[in-house]
Design brief:
Blueprint: E1 5-10, E2 16-20, E3 27-29, E4 32-37, E5 44-48, E6 55-58, E7 61-67, E8 76-80, E9 89-92, E10 95-97, E11 99-100, E12 113-117, E13 130-131, E14 133-136, E15 139-141, E16 155-159, E17 163-164
Parallel strand pairs: 1-4, 2-5, 3-6, 4-7, 5-8, 6-9, 7-10, 7-11, 8-12, 9-14, 10-15, 12-16, 13-17
Length: about 170
């Protein structure tokens, strides 16, 4: 999946720019993604899901992944939740900015994050088994206004408790 321009503005959920599951040798490279929803859910620009192995996510530009609804959800740039401890996934040279939402007052399963390892798409669990992930030379900018600005927690890189062998 390479060199695509993906722009989504929707009232629907879930919203994914690119969603890959049950694949070996997938290469997601050089895409520009902007996804915005007004639904009460966490949109994801790139989601690497169950059964993905021996794959790469490189040189993508995520220019926005936003929730405009005020119910506490936030966008997610790249999520990796393969369900396996030895996935052999490389995430390198990606640019991520404009990941935003209203967010809750504590970091949780709907908070905004640039890259999330051990998280399956826009699901609630932050504990998905995921291992064998290499993360190199990514740029993540989490600047922006949030509804709960004084207590909102976001992450440029989030590593869930089910992640190993990074």
């Amino acid at each position: 999946i390479s060199s695509n321009i993906i722009s989504i503005t929707s009232t629907l959920s879930p919203i994914f720019g690119i969603r890959v599951g049950q694949a070996s040798g997938a290469a997601i490279s050089g895409n520009t993604i902007n996804a915005t929803t007004s639904a009460g859910t966490a949109p994801v620009a790139i989601s690497i899901e169950t059964g993905v192995t021996n794959s790469s996510v490189t040189a993508n530009q995520i220019t926005g992944c936003t929730v405009t609804h005020t119910n506490g959800y936030g966008g997610r740039g790249i999520t990796v939740g393969t369900g396996a401890a030895s996935s052999n996934i490389t995430i390198a040279n990606n640019f991520i900015a404009g990941v935003n939402g209203s967010n809750f007052t504590g970091f949780g399963n709907s908070s905004s994050a640039g890259i999330m390892i051990g998280v399956l798409g826009n699901q609630n669990a932050l504990t998905t088994t995921t291992g064998g992930v290499n993360i190199y030379h990514n740029s993540v900018n989490m600047a922006g206004s949030y509804s709960y600005a004084n207590a909102c927690l976001t992450a440029g890189l989030y590593i869930g408790s089910g992640a190993s062998a990074l």
